[in-house]
């Protein structure tokens, strides 16, 4: 290719030729020079953004020699000669050739600038989060840069504020208080604590002495400290130099938790839970001067972009004055299919491509399909124009274009999905996509067969991790022939202006002042509260009466959103304006509109604001599992939800711990690798104190994985030798150092001191999980036992245990403690994770073996409790523990449809507390054999359990009390149906096979029957209870079969 020369006329301007294509092809041949000396010519689309061009040319250079000398793609930026004859580095790769106006069609790849500190920090972060982000950056480098800049700016504000904090304020960030939402005391608990007028009993330890004091539950912690110091002075009969109460703080014995601040004692979760369990809270009196200091900070990443470059980048990201609002374009939306390559089918195979436009799971217009195509040499070269039944003007900003590739069998009626891909219609700057795109498709085996042809609920990330991916090349045409300008979605103020202009006249249908008839109100009530599915007439009525819903039923916002015509820009504008005056939603309903059905960013912004105002940090931690999953429903990286999670995590290290492991455990998933890794990177870059602690945990997990693999390779028949080998490895200096003095990945409340190697072993089950025992860093605290698993997917267990904890919180908020035991469980990587060991406890099967009885002897469990509680009062307490916990788990397992219940996954602690483990089947997915369901009762309530509940038939009235408790527990859960339903709906994208779509979550409708009145629902549950009681013999048979099979 020959290039024009740069010449100047004396006293005149520079004469610059244009490189814009002169024909109508909109393509141009551009040369790309690589650092290894390779020159790659490539025809590129004039309006394609540079990050897309970069991805294509990088794949092209892989066919050239010396590619092993290149660094990852993310380490290079574009350098070109601009119109002023100067070298310019491209900072915003979302720009195209038209916007850059290079003097020559030549680009050079140059190394991005950095320094030793930056590289060191990058290496630490990359080792910790275990990702190769450069593979993702090849597809969306510009958006990644935009996200990183926006998040970095927000995080810097927080970390700057932290530098000016006092030592106590920094301590509060590392050891935040765990608080209830209020200090109100439920009536049931008031009865317990009002028995003694002197207040509640508290045990406070100081050095080797324990002082028993009494304080008012509404007193702040400093009064408990003063009472403890006074008790110490009284017992020693002398004053000490450190007797000033202000010198001390309360620490929970056995936990890395401190009780401080001006909150009532009863508002602290630890204190409240202790009192509910009729236990005295136990504290250690600690000198404030001995509190742990922050670890030395790792140098923060230096600023690598000069200030004038920041200005250029800001200008590049700013809206272009020449851009056109797409509401002015009435022509139909269209695209061009250019080719399909790398098809993994034999020549002659017939395929068909489907395309659809969706908003969430709702089709904006009819799907389109190509004619049958024949594969030749693994490709189909085509030129097919697709015009959709929606105008450009009516495209909502969260619209996604969905493609699905099907094979056509010899019988033309059979079609099988082979691959799919989704892409946003608008880019991250809300500009209508334009130019050529090469889209790597996702294989079908990652999803179940969709109900429709397309997969609209799949991710919008591209499959950049598979070398065998099929590629679809499409063109987004310049529909309005705008040249350098873009079609853009209007700014927020323009949307509100449109809503104002489109408002119905006063008194007219749909206006705020319309007169609503009684018949319409009755129909509205039916649609909002008694219909599982909204039909078209329901949606029309709800939209017509949207102001009535706002005024009378504001919590039904989700139903209004389902009724919006998202393919009408005027209706979308009206909904956007309506959100401005909508009352803030309670948490139960705000979570609902963060699921996949509501992708509109104004709706999601509203939901996040509601959560931010309502949720304490403890609540955020409780719902973090769902909030992390909800990130998958975001159309673009830079979302309000991501900002919310990052901001909260940077202000509370316990939240940061939970956020880190939830993101880290799924970072292997290519659908979220980019998104999750970027959030992790941003958190760790601005939180160097936490980086070291998390790195220590990650290194410990690597060591445990190595030991687990070693055991799997050993001869299990020689179990004793394998155990000795395991213990010898654990005693090696490198392992011993790595596995000592670290926070538990399960919870930062537990600090693990040193391994008790002689107590460590592995289990007999197939995956050989490790049973590990650590001493507590708190010398007065109990040992910490954890099971490490490698080879099992723990996500379903995590979700079930989280829901059990939510249920327990619902009950405890009413002063009811059902002695639930939702033990800790955390996935840390693909099929790896940790589980808290609950002890001392035995399985029902082991208890029956202990009694030397088969599954039909109902006395076994009661006799075991009597053996462990020879004292009558102690036995009464154990029976009470069993009664309460059995009631809680009966209701919980029924509501969640937990299956595969047998005597090896139902356990009982020596205290009498019953609990369930291993939640491999839920939401009604019961095990079956020969097409016969094993579970033929709503929940497990065997004769063994009734015998204990009635204390060996000596207290028959306990049976009625037990049933009444079950009924009360059920009704309390039913009142929080919206919350429980939202938590499951937000998890449909997590990849759990038994929760692959909304249909699975609807199982809760069957158990909690929200469409019935409370009286009808109670009758429904009573019938289920009677069914479980009468069918207890079936469960006993199931127990017997399980014992025989062992």
**CATH class identity of the largest domain:** Mainly Alpha
Q: Classify the beta-strand content into a percent band.
A: 15-25%
The third-level CATH topology of the largest domain is: Phosphatidylinositol 3-kinase Catalytic Subunit, Chain A, Domain 5
Q: In one word, what is the shape? A: globular
| Cα separation of the termini | 77 Å
What is the C-alpha radius of gyration, as a whole number of Å? 32 Å
Descriptive report:
The chain is of the alpha+beta class. It folds into 6 domains: 27-113, Ubiquitin-like (UB roll), CATH 3.10.20; 196-290, Phosphatidylinositol 3-kinase Catalytic Subunit, Chain A, domain 1 (Ubiquitin-like (UB roll), Roll), CATH 3.10.20; 324-484, Sandwich (Immunoglobulin-like); 490-583, Phosphatidylinositol 3-kinase, accessory domain (PIK) (Serine Threonine Protein Phosphatase 5, Tetratricopeptide repeat); 584-686, Phosphatidylinositol 3-kinase, accessory domain (PIK) (Serine Threonine Protein Phosphatase 5, Tetratricopeptide repeat); 841-1045, Orthogonal Bundle (Phosphatidylinositol 3-kinase Catalytic Subunit, Chain A, Domain 5), CATH 1.10.1070. Strands 13, 14, 15, 16, 18, 19 and 21 form a 7-stranded antiparallel β-sheet that branches. The longest helix is centred in the N-terminal third of the chain and has 30 residues, at 134-163. The protein is globular, with a radius of gyration of 32 Å. The termini are far apart. InterPro entries: ARM-type_fold, C2_domain_sf, Kinase-like_dom_sf, PI3/4_kinase, PI3/4_kinase_cat_dom, PI3/4_kinase_cat_sf, PI3/4_kinase_CS, PI3K-type_C2_dom. Residues 24-113 form the PI3K-ABD domain. Keywords: ATP-binding, Kinase, Nucleotide-binding, Transferase.
């Amino acid at each position: 290719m020959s290039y024009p020369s740069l010449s100047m006329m004396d006293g005149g301007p520079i004469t610059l030729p244009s490189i814009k294509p002169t024909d109508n092809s909109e393509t141009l041949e551009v040369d790309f020079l690589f650092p290894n000396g390779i020159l790659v010519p490539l025809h590129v689309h004039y309006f394609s953004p540079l990050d897309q061009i970069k991805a294509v040319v990088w794949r092209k250079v892989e066919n050239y020699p010396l590619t092993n000398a290149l660094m990852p793609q993310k380490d290079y930026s574009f350098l070109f000669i601009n119109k002023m004859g100067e070298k310019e580095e491209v900072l915003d790769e979302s720009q195209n050739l038209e916007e850059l106006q290079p003097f020559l069609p030549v680009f050079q790849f140059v190394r991005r600038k950095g320094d030793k500190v930056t590289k060191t920090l990058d290496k630490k972060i990359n080792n910790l989060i275990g990702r190769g982000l450069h593979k993702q950056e090849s597809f969306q480098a510009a958006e990644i840069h935009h996200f990183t800049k926006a998040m970095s700016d927000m995080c810097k504000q927080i970390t700057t504020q932290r530098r000016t904090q006092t030592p106590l304020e920094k301590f509060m960030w590392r050891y935040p208080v765990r608080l209830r939402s209020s200090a109100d005391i439920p009536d049931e608990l008031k009865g317990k604590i009002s028995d003694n007028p002197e207040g509640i009993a508290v045990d406070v330890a100081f050095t080797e002495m324990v002082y028993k004091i009494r304080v008012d539950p509404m007193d702040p912690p400093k009064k408990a400290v003063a009472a403890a110091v006074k008790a110490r002075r009284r017992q020693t009969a002398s004053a000490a130099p450190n007797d000033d109460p202000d010198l001390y703080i309360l620490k929970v014995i056995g936990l890395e938790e401190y009780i401080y601040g001006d909150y009532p004692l009863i508002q602290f979760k630890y204190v409240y839970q202790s009192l509910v369990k009729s236990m005295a809270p136990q504290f250690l009196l600690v000198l404030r001067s001995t509190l742990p200091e922050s670890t030395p900070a790792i140098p923060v990443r230096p600023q690598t972009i000069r200030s004038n470059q920041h200005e250029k980048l800001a200008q590049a990201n700013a809206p272009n004055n020449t851009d056109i609002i797409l509401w002015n374009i009435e022509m139909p939306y269209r695209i061009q299919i250019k080719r399909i390559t790398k098809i993994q089918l034999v020549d002659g195979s017939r395929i068909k491509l489907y395309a659809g436009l969706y908003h969430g799971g709702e089709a904006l217009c009819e799907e389109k399909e190509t004619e049958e195509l024949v594969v030749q040499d693994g490709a189909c070269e085509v030129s097919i124009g697709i015009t959709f039944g929606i105008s450009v003007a009516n495209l909502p900003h969260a619209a996604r274009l969905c493609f699905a590739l099907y094979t056509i069998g010899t019988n033309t009626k059979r079609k099988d999905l082979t691959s799919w891909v989704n892409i946003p219609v608008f880019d991250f700057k809300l500009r209508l996509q334009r130019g050529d795109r090469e889209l790597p498709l996702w294989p079908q085996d990652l999803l179940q067969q969709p109900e429709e042809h397309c997969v609209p609920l799949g991710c919008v990330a591209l499959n950049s991790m598979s070398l065998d991916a099929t590629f679809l090349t499409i063109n987004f045409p310049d529909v309005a022939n705008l040249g350098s300008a873009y079609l853009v979605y209007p700014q927020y103020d323009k949307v509100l202006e449109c809503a104002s202009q489109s408002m119905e006249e006063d008194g007219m249908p749909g206006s705020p002042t319309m007169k609503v008839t009684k018949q319409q109100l009755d129909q509205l009530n039916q649609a909002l509260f008694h219909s599982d599915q909204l039909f078209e007439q329901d949606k029309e009525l709800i939209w017509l009466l949207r102001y009535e819903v706002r005024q009378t039923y504001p919590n039904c916002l989700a139903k209004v959103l389902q009724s919006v015509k998202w393919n009408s820009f005027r209706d979308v504008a009206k909904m956007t304006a309506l959100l401005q005056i909508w009352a803030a939603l309670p948490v139960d309903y705000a979570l609902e509109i963060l699921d996949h059905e509501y992708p509109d960013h104004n709706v999601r912004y509203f939901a996040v604001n509601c959560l931010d105002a309502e949720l304490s940090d403890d609540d955020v931690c409780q719902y973090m599992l769902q909030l992390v999953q909800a990130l998958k429903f975001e159309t673009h990286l830079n979302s309000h939800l991501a900002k919310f999670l990052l901001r909260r995590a940077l202000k509370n290290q316990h939240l940061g711990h939970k956020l880190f492991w939830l993101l880290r455990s799924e970072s292997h998933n290519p659908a979220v690798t980019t998104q999750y890794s970027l959030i992790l990177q941003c958190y760790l870059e601005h939180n160097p104190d936490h980086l070291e602690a998390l790195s220590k945990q990650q290194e410990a997990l690597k060591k445990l994985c190595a030991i687990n693999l070693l055991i799997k390779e050993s001869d299990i028949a020689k179990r004793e030798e394998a155990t000795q080998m395991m213990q010898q490895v654990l005693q090696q200096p490198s392992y011993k150092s790595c596995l000592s003095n670290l926070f538990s990945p399960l919870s930062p409340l537990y600090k693990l001191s040193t391994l008790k190697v002689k107590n460590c072993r592995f289990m007999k089950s197939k995956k050989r999980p490790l049973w590990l025992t650590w001493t507590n860093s708190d010398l007065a605290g109990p040992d910490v036992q954890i099971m490490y698993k490698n080879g099992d997917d723990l996500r379903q267990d995590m979700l079930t245990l989280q829901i059990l904890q939510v249920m327990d919180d619902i009950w405890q908020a009413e002063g009811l403690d059902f002695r639930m035991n939702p033990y800790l469980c955390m996935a840390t990587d693909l099929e790896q994770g940790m589980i808290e060991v609950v002890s001392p406890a035995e399985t029902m099967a082991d208890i029956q073996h202990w009694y030397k009885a088969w599954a039909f002897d109902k006395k076994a469990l009661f006799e075991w409790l009597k053996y462990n509680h020879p004292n009558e009062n102690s036995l009464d307490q154990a029976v009470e523990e069993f009664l309460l916990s059995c009631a809680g788990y009966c209701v919980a397992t029924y509501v969640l449809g937990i299956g595969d219940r047998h005597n090896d996954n139902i356990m009982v602690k020596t205290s009498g507390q019953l609990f369930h483990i291993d939640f491999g089947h839920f939401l009604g997915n019961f095990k079956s054999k020969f097409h016969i369901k094993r579970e033929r009762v709503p929940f497990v309530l065997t004769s063994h359990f009734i015998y204990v509940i009635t204390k060996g038939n000596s207290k028959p009235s306990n049976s009625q009390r037990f049933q009444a408790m079950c009924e009360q527990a059920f009704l309390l859960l039913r009142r929080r149906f919206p919350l429980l339903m939202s938590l499951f709906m937000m998890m449909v994208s997590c990849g759990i096979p038994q929760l692959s779509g909304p249909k699975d979550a609807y199982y809760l409708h069957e158990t909690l029957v929200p469409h019935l009145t409370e009286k009808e629902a109670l009758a429904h549950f009573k019938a289920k209870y009677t069914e479980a009681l009468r069918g207890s013999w079936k469960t006993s048979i199931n127990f017997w079969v399980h014992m025989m099979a062992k």
